[in-house]
Amino acid sequence: MAEVSSAFCTSFLPKFPKLPVLPNIHGFAASSRASHRLTRCSISAEPMPSGTSSSTIPWGCEIESLESAFALQRWLSESGLPPQKMDIRRVDVGERGLVALKSIRKGEKLLFVPPSLVITADSEWTNTEAGYVMRSNSVPDWPLLATYLISEASLRDSSRWSIYISALPRQPYSLLYWTRAELDMYLVASQIRMRAIERVSDVTGVYTDLRARIFSKHPTVFPEEVFNLETFKWSFGILFSRLVRLSAMDGKVALVPWADMLNHNSEVETFLDYDKSSRGIVFSTDRVYQSGEQVFISYGKKSNGELLLSYGFVPKEGTNPNDSVELSLSLEKNDKCYNEKVDALRKHGLSTPQQFPLQITGWSLEMMAYAYLVVSSSDMRQRFDEMAACAAGKTKSRMGINYPELEEQTLQFILDCCESSISKYSKFLEGGSPLDPITANVQEANRRLLLKQLAVALCTSERRILFRAQYILRRRLRDIRSGELRALTIFNGFRKLFK
Ligand SMILES: C[S@@+](CC[C@H](N)C(=O)[O-])C[C@H]1O[C@@H](n2cnc3c(N)ncnc32)[C@H](O)[C@@H]1O
């Protein structure tokens, strides 16, 4: 039986692990070529014909061209990939994708990519010296794989992966390719902006660490013309958008050629994993596909912001049941108990401000607990620790904590935070971008148009969730207040009766 994993474990792009740094060091990349086109189901960044602030990567392909994808398909078949029920085609969603060649049943196992055709941290290096140096420095999986990909790519036809690498996008789509000014201008309202800035800085940090600790000591093995920030931005972009975590292989991360031609659909619930019985990477379909239909998998239960961050696309509004927006809550600076509350938060690994995910279905117990802490006064100080622990998700009760006396004030606080966030989104969405620099370059103008479309799609979906929360909160507050009013009217009625 297939051991198909659940959500996060096998999804494309596992969460960037607490940055894959080299031992004993801390720390751990945006301009481009992108034409604009709105697909029917989602919006994604596509490469622009050469020109514009382009990447200088000499390998990979322009994704519009299927030639390299067909070559990949031929090479994989000759190298042991069994006959497939799917074929690489140009598709409406995701540029290239896998399309059913015949009808496929629900629950059918597909792919069967043998481990010999998979790239992992254990793969053999064509440049054995480079592999030896990296392994003897105990470089963790992510930086190791990023370096491996560059090393193999630079060796062109001498690498066994040359046909695979030629079919990879020359410029993977992700926020790594947005400039800081673009992130600031287009994602000003969204918390994804900070996540993108951190990611760029993490990738830069990893490259800087590798250069300082390893590359600079072995310049003939790792020449700067090949191993530089630009190539690392490419390889990390590939890893972010194509790496899979295989839970049946003890969580090993891998690049799985062919399987990585599958596009994501947020309503699909099937993930890639290693199947011990067939000894291959498979997935089981969760629905029927007719011949000619594109087959999808899930990259994990990700919000639209996370999908934009790692994969460079935003699903069509309202189609992602896992969508959420990060709401930022913070302690009031003039709170008399500010320091005590900060200490309680710190003790449980939280800070101020702190972000919490808000979904269309509502908010978490953690967010409510944090808001309780924000609004509570000094006479609740013995409860601060309990509130902070619950905000950190450390409470044992599934019901969380409940302070009816703080309910109204807490909901009002969350409503104020939602409204302040909504006004930032509305300013961006309705105010246009007056700061948009004017450019005479058509390609650059197209690229900016695309980034703006992506940002508008993201911000519209995030604001929609906030609007929904605003509606729920207002109704709850109205009910609380009208309940109080009714109680007061009854009380006054009794008072008159007894007078
Ligand atoms: C694992 S690859 C899938 C194969 C890819 N379409 C290709 O041609 O190489 C992930 C990339 O596919 C694209 N993609 C996947 N799902 C998508 C979707 N639902 N809408 C738009 N683009 C998608 C994004 O560009 C993403 O970075």
What key attributes describe this structure?
binds S-adenosylmethionine, 499 residues, set domain protein methyltransferase, domain 1, 2 domains, alpha+beta, disordered N terminus, set domain protein methyltransferase, domain 2
Please give the radius of gyration in angstroms.
26 Å
- Supply the number of structural domains: 2
Distinct ligands: S-adenosylmethionine
Helix content: 40-55%
Tell the overall outline.
globular
The assigned CATH architecture of the largest domain is: Alpha-Beta Complex
Query: CATH superfamily of the largest domain, please?
Result: set domain protein methyltransferase, domain 1
H-E string:
HEHEEEHHHHHHEEEEEEHEEHEEHHHH
Question: Helices, strands, pairings?
Answer:
Blueprint: H1 7-10, E1 42-44, H2 67-78, E2 86-90, E3 96-100, E4 109-113, H3 128-136, H4 141-154, H5 162-166, H6 180-186, H7 192-213, H8 229-242, E5 244-246, E6 252-254, E7 263-264, E8 273-275, E9 280-284, E10 296-297, H9 304-311, E11 313-315, E12 324-329, H10 338-347, E13 354-359, E14 362-363, H11 365-375, H12 384-391, H13 407-431, H14 442-498
Helix pairs in contact: 4-8, 7-8, 10-12, 11-12, 11-13, 13-14
